[in-house]
Amino acid sequence: MTKSFKNSVAESGQDKYVKKLTTISHCKLFLHAQLQNRESLRDMADDVCNHEFQRELGFSSISAAELCRKHNQVDSDLLQHVFERLAGKVLTLSTSPAKRTR
Questions:
Q1: Alpha-carbon distances of 68 from 26, 42, 73, 101, rounded to whole Å
Q2: What are the pLDDT digits (tens) for 7-58?
Q3: pTM of the full predicted structure?
Q4: Phi-psi map region of 18: left, alpha, beta (phi>0 left; psi -120 to 50 alpha)
Q5: Suppose 38 and one of 42, 43, 69, 81 were both cysteines; which one would form an S-S bond, judging by CB atoms 3.0 to 4.6 Å apart?
Protein backbone atom coordinates (compact mmCIF):
# COMPACT_ATOMS: atom_id res chain seq x y z
CA MET A 1 0.00 0.00 0.00
CA THR A 2 1.11 3.52 -0.55
CA LYS A 3 2.65 5.74 2.06
CA SER A 4 -0.13 8.30 1.56
CA PHE A 5 -2.76 5.65 2.34
CA LYS A 6 -0.97 4.66 5.53
CA ASN A 7 -0.68 8.33 6.50
CA SER A 8 -4.38 8.94 5.81
CA VAL A 9 -5.38 5.97 7.95
CA ALA A 10 -3.13 7.16 10.78
CA GLU A 11 -4.42 10.73 10.59
CA SER A 12 -8.06 9.60 10.61
CA GLY A 13 -7.60 7.41 13.69
CA GLN A 14 -9.41 4.65 11.78
CA ASP A 15 -7.32 1.91 13.44
CA LYS A 16 -6.91 3.47 16.87
CA TYR A 17 -7.96 0.38 18.85
CA VAL A 18 -7.55 -2.27 16.16
CA LYS A 19 -5.36 -5.24 16.98
CA LYS A 20 -5.84 -7.60 14.04
CA LEU A 21 -7.72 -6.49 10.93
CA THR A 22 -6.35 -3.06 10.15
CA THR A 23 -7.80 -0.86 7.42
CA ILE A 24 -4.75 -1.55 5.28
CA SER A 25 -5.11 -5.34 5.69
CA HIS A 26 -8.83 -5.00 4.98
CA CYS A 27 -8.11 -3.18 1.73
CA LYS A 28 -5.48 -5.73 0.73
CA LEU A 29 -7.99 -8.51 1.31
CA PHE A 30 -10.66 -6.78 -0.76
CA LEU A 31 -8.23 -5.96 -3.56
CA HIS A 32 -7.10 -9.58 -3.59
CA ALA A 33 -10.73 -10.73 -3.64
CA GLN A 34 -11.50 -8.45 -6.57
CA LEU A 35 -8.49 -9.68 -8.55
CA GLN A 36 -9.31 -13.32 -7.78
CA ASN A 37 -13.05 -12.90 -8.49
CA ARG A 38 -14.05 -14.03 -5.01
CA GLU A 39 -17.80 -13.99 -4.48
CA SER A 40 -18.20 -14.09 -0.72
CA LEU A 41 -16.64 -13.10 2.57
CA ARG A 42 -16.23 -16.82 3.31
CA ASP A 43 -14.10 -17.18 0.14
CA MET A 44 -11.99 -14.25 1.28
CA ALA A 45 -11.55 -15.71 4.75
CA ASP A 46 -10.48 -19.03 3.21
CA ASP A 47 -7.81 -17.25 1.14
CA VAL A 48 -6.06 -16.24 4.36
CA CYS A 49 -4.98 -19.88 4.78
CA ASN A 50 -2.14 -19.15 2.31
CA HIS A 51 1.06 -18.67 4.35
CA GLU A 52 2.51 -15.94 2.12
CA PHE A 53 -0.75 -14.02 2.32
CA GLN A 54 -0.74 -14.43 6.11
CA ARG A 55 2.67 -12.77 6.30
CA GLU A 56 1.52 -9.92 4.07
CA LEU A 57 -1.60 -9.32 6.17
CA GLY A 58 0.00 -9.87 9.56
CA PHE A 59 -2.42 -12.50 10.87
CA SER A 60 -3.12 -16.19 10.30
CA SER A 61 -6.91 -16.40 10.23
CA ILE A 62 -10.04 -14.30 9.91
CA SER A 63 -13.72 -15.07 9.95
CA ALA A 64 -16.34 -13.88 7.51
CA ALA A 65 -18.09 -12.18 10.44
CA GLU A 66 -14.93 -10.21 11.28
CA LEU A 67 -14.61 -9.15 7.65
CA CYS A 68 -18.21 -8.01 7.63
CA ARG A 69 -17.78 -5.97 10.84
CA LYS A 70 -14.63 -4.29 9.53
CA HIS A 71 -16.27 -3.58 6.19
CA ASN A 72 -19.07 -1.77 8.02
CA GLN A 73 -16.60 0.21 10.14
CA VAL A 74 -14.27 1.47 7.40
CA ASP A 75 -14.76 5.16 6.70
CA SER A 76 -15.87 5.42 3.07
CA ASP A 77 -14.77 9.07 2.93
CA LEU A 78 -11.24 7.99 3.80
CA LEU A 79 -11.24 5.40 1.03
CA GLN A 80 -12.68 7.90 -1.44
CA HIS A 81 -10.03 10.47 -0.56
CA VAL A 82 -7.22 7.96 -1.00
CA PHE A 83 -8.70 6.65 -4.26
CA GLU A 84 -8.97 10.17 -5.67
CA ARG A 85 -5.35 10.94 -4.79
CA LEU A 86 -4.13 7.70 -6.36
CA ALA A 87 -6.28 8.19 -9.45
CA GLY A 88 -4.85 11.69 -9.81
CA LYS A 89 -1.31 10.31 -9.65
CA VAL A 90 -2.09 7.66 -12.25
CA LEU A 91 -3.65 10.26 -14.53
CA THR A 92 -0.61 12.52 -14.15
CA LEU A 93 1.78 9.68 -14.95
CA SER A 94 -0.22 8.51 -17.95
CA THR A 95 -0.31 11.99 -19.48
CA SER A 96 3.27 13.05 -18.74
CA PRO A 97 5.49 13.78 -21.79
CA ALA A 98 8.02 11.12 -20.77
CA LYS A 99 5.33 8.42 -20.96
CA ARG A 100 4.06 9.57 -24.37
CA THR A 101 7.50 9.22 -26.02
CA ARG A 102 7.87 5.55 -25.08
A1: 10, 10, 9, 46
A2: 888 888 888 888 888 888 888 888 888 889 999 989 988 888 888 888 888 8
A3: 0.71
A4: beta
A5: 43
